[in-house]
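User: Can you predict the 3D structure for this chain?
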Amino acid sequence: MFKKIGPGVLVAAAFVGPGTITMCTLAGARFGYALIWALLVSIIATIVLQGMAGRIGLVTQNGLVDVVRTELRTPWIRNIVIVVVLGAILVGNAAYEAGNIGGATLGLEQLLPQKQLAPFLPAIIGVVIFLLLWFSNYKVLEKIFVALVGIMGVSFVICAIITQPSVTGILKGMFVPRLPKDSLLTVIALVGTTVVPYNLFLHASLVKEKWNSTEDLKAVSWDTAISIGLGGLVSMAILITAAAAPISDIGHALDMAKALEPLFGKMAVYFMSIGLLAAGITSAITAPLAAAYVAGSCFGWKGGMQNKKFKMVWGIVLLCGVFFLSFDIKPIEVIQFAQVANGILLPVMALLLLWIVNKKSVMGKNKNTAVQNAFGVAIVVFAIFLGGKSIFKVIGLF
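Assistant: Here is the predicted structure, written as structure tokens:
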């Protein structure tokens, strides 16, 4: 079973990044175990949507944008969808890349005995990621990610166990949905950091890199469910740890580790720092990679990861991240644009996924079952609500 684990690990690594860690920390510190149910819902939604994307990638042996471009016959609708996808993914991932590298920098800084290298850490991490992407093929990246996700998972789960959480409280928070006062935006943020639009494109492209026969559909389903389930476990572990930590003011994820240090010793800081470093690096690799796959699909580039234009796209996204972070530039307007674009993109892609996986001309006998459609429709409605809220929040209506 573990030999068949692959693309799902990269998806899990992509959504458990510094942003997710910070949001889970905030949720746990402010609302205790009460919002674990929101993570559970978002994990189920992610497994369903990513499962559809993976199935499309395997059956068609094409990227998601390739399939959408082929199936949308009306030129103006097709062009609008492609522009929204390109804008959201390329600009958004370039803006978010600074946060990914920043998370890795923060984790590494805590592990270094001397702080003299601190100003140069973003550039050092950027160079390491560049070399990994430039010289690695899919199989090498897969092994690297399995190792990093393993390290990240063990680190955060150990942190959660150290705090000796209430099992009853966790189960209640998981299966008895509640909305404490002022928690709605936190719920939306928790779901928004887990159900990530660019992961749909990344997953479809990576599945066809690993498998090429519909006989592997079961392997794709196992890979998706296990990997994303483990990613969800990591997110829950972070929230559970934060619920037990005596913190009120949170600037970033390591504030939780520092709050735990007087109670549980320096090891809490080390485990948290290692987890944050692994999470930052994995997300900093997948964001440029997803942007390059989307651009490749939109423009019909051949040659996969070795294509020069493909490398140029991920190189620009990575460079933007290092640049914004090194010069302490806050690309607020760019990030706001990305949030609006992603708010539109998530329901649009959820609808398109549902439409494509029900087309017999595309999926044949592997189209959706009635149960899968029921889950899909519920998630589409939820995605529209989530997307609307994120847009209204950015433009100041909420």
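The two ends are 46 Å apart (CA to CA). The first helix runs from residue 7 to 15.
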